[in-house]
Specification:
The complex is a heterodimer. By secondary structure, chain A is an alpha/beta fold. Chain A has 14 helices and 15 strands. Chain A folds into two domains: 240 residues, Thiamin diphosphate (ThDP)-binding fold, Pyr/PP domains (Rossmann fold), CATH 3.40.50.970; 130 residues, Rossmann fold (3-Layer(aba) Sandwich). Classes of the chains: A alpha/beta, B alpha/beta.
Chain lengths: 388, 290
C-alpha cells in the first residue's frame, strides 16, 4: 500500500470555503448557483476562484434555486459534471426537481447548508430542510467539520458517478458553515485521479435521438424505480470504498458511520452533523466519570447503512438519538428511521429519541451528559423528548 | 396544389402524436427543418411534448430533455452551458414550450434567461390556453374566449408577451404563423444565426380547444394574421420593430365565426374585440413606424 500523500498545505477557513475548495480542486464543468444565507460564502468563494482564473467551472447565476437545479439537471443530462449549493428555502424550492434529477439518474453533487425553514423566519442550524427531502432519491451525507466537508464534496462525485444517482452533502449552518478551522487542502492531481469522470450510460448528444425524461408507461416507470433500488443498494459499499481510498491517500478515513469509543459502550449517542462534536465531549467526560458511553455518527443518511447500524447497536443496551430536527406529529427523523431499521431485532437497544438543538438552540455537553445519566437505565421512551 | 417552397429534410417524422389537422405539428416540422441536426432540444410539458412521442419514440431527429413546465428556458441554458464546457459552442439549443409554460409558469425562468442573454432559440407554440390538459385559460387566452376555466369568456386581455420580452432587449423576437410558412422558416433561419436569446411565438389554433374544424387550423391562423388579431412582426434588440405583414385586411368577424370559443358573443362583444384589435394594431404600427 502506498503511504498517504502528506500535504502541508493547511489553511484556516470556514466550512463553506472548504466546500468551495473541494469544488475548485475538481473543477466540474458547470455550476448553477443562487445565493441564500448561509450558503452564500460557497457561491462567493467560487466566483472569487473563477475571477482568479483558478476555477474552470462555468458558473451560472439564474434567478432562483429552482432554475439553478433545472440548469444543473439539463447540464448533467448533456454530459457535464455539475455542482450546485443551496440551503433551506432554496432546497425546498427545488423539491420537484430533486425527484426529477434522481429519476433521470443524473450524478449531480449538491452541497446543502442545513438551516431552519420558514415560518417563522430563522437562519439557524436545523436539518429538517434536507431530511424532508429524504424520499426524492438523493443520496444524503452529513458532515461534521470543514475538513470533512471539503473531503466529502470530492468523495460525493465519485459516489454519484459510480451509481448514477445525485448526492446531497449537508453541513450545519454556522456551526460548520461559518466556523473557521485549519483545513488541509489535498493535492489537486491526487483529487482528480481519485474522482476521474467516468463514461455515462445516458446523456444528450447530437447525432442521436436518445432523449431523457420522455413520457413512459406504467411498467416502464415502475422499472425506473426498481433500477434506482438496485443503485441505492450499492451506495453503502461505494461510500465505504470512497472513504477508504481517500483515507489511503490523505490519512483521513471515512465511512458511512463514524464510531467513537463504542467498543465496550453501554450507552451511545446516535446523531448527525455538528452535534457529534458536542456528543464527543460528553462521551469523554462520562468516560472519565466511569460511564461507558460512546457515539455513533451517521454520516450516510440515505440510504441508511442498515447492517452496519444493526451490528453496532446489537452490543449496546441503550441508544440516545439526538435529532436536530422535528417532524411534526412524528418526532426526530433519525430516531424514527432507526426504530424502523432495528424493528424485529432481538437484541435491539432501548432507544430514546431526543429533540436536541431544534431551531439551532445551543446544546452544551453537560446537557448530553445528564441525558445519559437520566436515560441509560430507563425503559424505552415511546414519545420524543424535547431537550431543554 | 400550391407550392409552399418548403424543402423537407425529414427532421420531423411521421407517426407523431398530434391531433389530425393540428397546426402545431406543421410548425414543429418547419422549425425542426430549419434548425437541422446539430441541435439539442428542451421541451416543457405541453402539446409539443406529447407530439414528440412517448418513450422510446422521438418524432424529431434531435434528442430532447423533457424538462419541467416552469423551467424550459432555465433547462435550455443548462444544456448550452454544458455544450460550451465541451467546446461545442455552435450546437443550437432549441427550446419548445406552450403558452402556459411561457406566459405563466415559465415566465420567471424565461425572463432570467433573456436578461442573461443565454444563447438559446426558444419557440412558444401559442394555442392561447392549457389545451393539453383539456382547455383551461392561461394568461395568453384572449378576452372573451371561453375555456374550461372561463366558461363565460375571459374578462381580461391576452398578456403582451412580446413587449415583455422586448423590454429585456434580447437580440431577436418574432411572431409567426403556419399560414405564412416561408416567413416562419425565414424567421427560424434568422434566429438560428444570431447568438443570444431568440424567441419565436407561433400562433396555433387548437382544434378541440378553440372549437375549430379539423381542416381549418391554418385557415384560422391565416385569419388571425389578416384580421390583425395576431400580427406578424419581428423585434431586433428590443427596439427595432419590423412588420412582416404590414396591413390588416379583414374584420374580426371572419376569424371569430370559425371558432366555438367565441360563439357566445353578441354584436356588442364582437365590436368590443374589434376595437381592442384596432387599438393594438395602431399602437404596433406606430412603434413599427408604418
Amino acid at each position: 500500500m502506498n503511504a498517504p500523500v502528506r500535504n502541508t498545505n493547511v489553511q484556516l477557513m470556514n466550512g463553506n470555503h472548504a466546500v468551495a475548495w473541494g469544488v475548485r480542486l475538481l473543477s466540474p464543468d458547470v455550476a448553477p448557483l443562487y445565493p441564500i444565507t448561509p450558503q452564500t460564502p460557497i457561491l462567493e468563494k467560487l466566483i472569487d476562484f473563477q475571477s482568479q482564473d483558478v476555477l474552470s467551472t462555468r458558473l451560472l447565476t439564474p434567478e432562483s434555486e429552482h432554475s439553478a437545479m433545472a440548469g444543473a439537471i439539463a447540464a448533467s443530462a448533456t454530459g457535464a459534471r455539475v455542482f450546485t449549493a443551496t440551503s433551506s428555502q432554496g432546497l425546498l424550492l427545488m423539491h420537484e426537481l430533486l425527484h426529477y434529477a434522481a429519476g433521470a439518474r443524473l450524478p449531480i453533487v449538491m452541497f446543502n447548508v442545513n438551516r431552519t425553514p420558514a415560518a417563522p423566519w430563522g437562519f439557524w442550524p436545523d436539518q429538517i430542510d434536507s431530511l424532508s427531502q429524504r424520499d426524492t432519491g438523493w443520496i444524503q451525507l452529513y458532515t461534521e467539520t470543514p475538513q470533512e466537508s471539503l473531503d466529502t464534496t470530492i468523495q460525493a462525485f465519485r459516489i454519484a458517478e459510480a451509481c448514477e444517482m445525485p448526492v446531497m452533502v449537508n453541513h450545519d449552518a454556522f456551526y460548520v458553515s461559518h466556523a473557521v478551522e485549519p483545513v488541509e487542502i489535498p493535492d489537486q492531481e491526487m483529487v482528480q485521479n481519485f474522482a476521474k469522470k467516468p463514461d455515462r450510460s445516458l446523456w444528450l448528444e447530437t447525432g442521436s435521438i436518445r432523449s431523457i425524461g420522455t413520457p413512459i408507461g406504467q411498467a416502464g416507470w415502475n422499472e425506473t424505480r426498481r433500477e434506482m433500488d438496485v443503485a441505492m443498494q450499492r451506495v453503502v459499499g461505494l461510500t465505504e470504498e470512497a472513504g477508504r481510498v481517500w483515507g489511503e491517500q490523505t490519512g483521513r478515513h471515512y465511512g458511512p458511520l463514524d464510531f467513537y469509543r463504542t467498543d465496550d459502550a453501554e450507552v451511545v449517542f446516535v446523531t448527525m452533523g455538528s452535534m457529534a462534536g458536542t456528543a464527543r465531549e460528553a462521551v469523554d467526560t462520562l468516560r472519565r466519570n466511569g460511564v461507558a458511553a460512546g457515539l455513533i455518527r451517521v454520516r450516510l443518511f440515505r440510504p441508511l447503512p442498515i447492517s452496519g447500524l444493526r451490528a453496532a447497536l446489537a452490543k449496546i443496551p441503550t441508544a440516545i438519538v439526538l435529532d436536530r430536527n422535528y417532524s411534526p406529529g412524528l418526532g426526530g427523523v433519525l430516531h424514527q428511521e432507526l426504530k424502523a431499521e432495528l424493528y424485529g431485532m432481538e437484541n435491539a437497544p432501548r432507544m430514546h429519541g431526543m429533540l436536541a438543538g431544534v431551531g439551532g438552540v445551543n446544546v452544551p455537553p453537560e446537557t448530553l451528559e445528564k441525558l445519559v445519566i437520566d436515560y441509560k437505565d430507563a425503559e424505552q421512551s415511546q414519545s420524543p423528548i424535547w431537550v431543554d | 396544389m400550391k407550392d409552399t417552397g418548403f424543402n423537407d429534410q425529414g427532421h420531423f417524422c411521421s407517426g407523431h402524436n398530434a391531433c389530425a389537422g393540428c397546426a402545431e405539428a406543421l410548425a414543429m416540422r418547419v422549425v425542426l427543418n430549419e434548425v437541422g441536426e446539430d441541435a439539442i432540444g428542451v421541451v416543457a410539458p405541453s402539446c409539443v411534448a406529447i407530439i414528440l412521442g412517448a418513450h422510446p419514440n422521438n418524432s424529431a431527429k434531435i434528442p430532447f430533455i423533457h424538462g419541467t413546465i416552469e423551467s424550459a428556458a432555465a433547462s435550455a441554458a443548462g444544456v448550452k452551458q454544458a455544450l460550451i464546457a465541451q467546446g461545442k459552442n455552435d450546437t443550437t439549443v432549441l427550446c419548445f414550450a406552450g403558452d402556459g409554460g411561457t406566459y405563466d409558469i415559465g415566465l420567471q425562468s424565461l425572463s432570467s434567461v433573456a436578461e442573461r442573454n443565454e444563447d438559446i432559440l426558444y419557440v412558444c407554440f401559442d394555442n392561447e390556453g392549457y389545451m393539453n390538459t383539456g382547455g383551461q385559460k392561461s394568461s395568453s387566452t384572449p378576452r372573451a374566449a371561453a375555456t374550461g376555466s372561463t366558461p363565460l369568456g375571459k374578462t381580461t386581455r391576452k398578456k403582451n408577451m412580446v413587449e415583455i420580452l422586448a423590454a429585456h432587449r434580447i437580440p431577436y423576437i418574432a411572431t409567426a404563423s403556419t399560414s405564412h410558412m416561408g416567413d416562419l422558416a425565414e424567421k427560424v433561419r434568422k434566429a438560428k444565426a444570431i447568438r443570444g436569446t431568440k424567441v419565436l411565438i407561433i400562433i396555433i389554433p387548437c382544434l378541440p380547444g378553440w372549437g375549430v374544424a379539423d381542416d381549418a387550423a391554418t385557415k384560422v391562423a391565416r385569419l388571425a394574421v389578416e384580421t390583425g388579431v395576431f400580427p406578424l412582426f419581428e423585434i431586433e434588440d428590443g427596439v427595432k420593430y419590423t412588420m412582416s405583414v404590414g396591413e390588416k385586411t379583414k374584420e374580426i368577424g371572419s376569424y371569430l365565426e370559425l371558432q366555438k370559443r367565441y360563439r357566445h358573443l353578441d354584436d356588442e362583444g364582437r365590436e368590443g374585440l374589434q376595437a381592442e384589435v384596432n387599438e393594438n394594431w395602431e399602437r404596433l404600427a406606430e412603434i413599427a413606424g408604418k
